[in-house]
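[DERIVE STRUCTURE TOKENS]
===
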Amino acid sequence: MNFKCYDVVEIQGKRYVVIEVISYQEFIIEKTVNYTLNDEMYNNELGTHKGAKNWTEYGIMPVDTKDKNKKWLTIVNGEKDYCTFSETILRSTPPKGYKLYDKGLQRVMSVEGESKARSGDKADYKEYRSIKKDKTYVFFIEDWHGGLTDQAQGERIRLSDVHRRRDQAAQAVSKKIRNAARRKEWTRLGLSWGIILFFLGYLFIGDMTWQMK
């Protein structure tokens, strides 16, 4: 199951718009092999090594304008039954009862949409889980090599509970968010060009002034 930016998805009866798509790949470190993230051995080893994972993280915003909290939908490639539904929190340690389930080093492979992530970013991650009454709850910690730390908490849900919506209402919301993103990008580019032209004009006037002396 794959989604694109500005797709509308429905999860647990609530609709969201995909505003960013981040693809990750796990970096398997062998004790007997020394290599960096950019060399040929890394590229050959990663993806063929037993246990290496790929997953996609979707940043989604509620269609309900009263709810401003971004959620995360994480789908591991090849996993057919379950995915993770979570949101960013300020808590820095897992709640009581959560046990370490997985840890490793992740690398951002590609980014689409409005995101702070960049291709090549790396982070050490830890995933904790707690099972209560047939539900699996999760807690994530990501220590980015740039110095930032992110935490998220949520639950495992069935992929069958995630639906793409394409009705008239969904299309209207998708178009609205897409157009807003384009206007934001045009404004950003306009400001950038304005600063560049101002700087060039300042240099040109300064040069003309010097020649007139």
Helices lie at 40-45, 168-212. Residues 168-212 form the longest helix (45 residues).
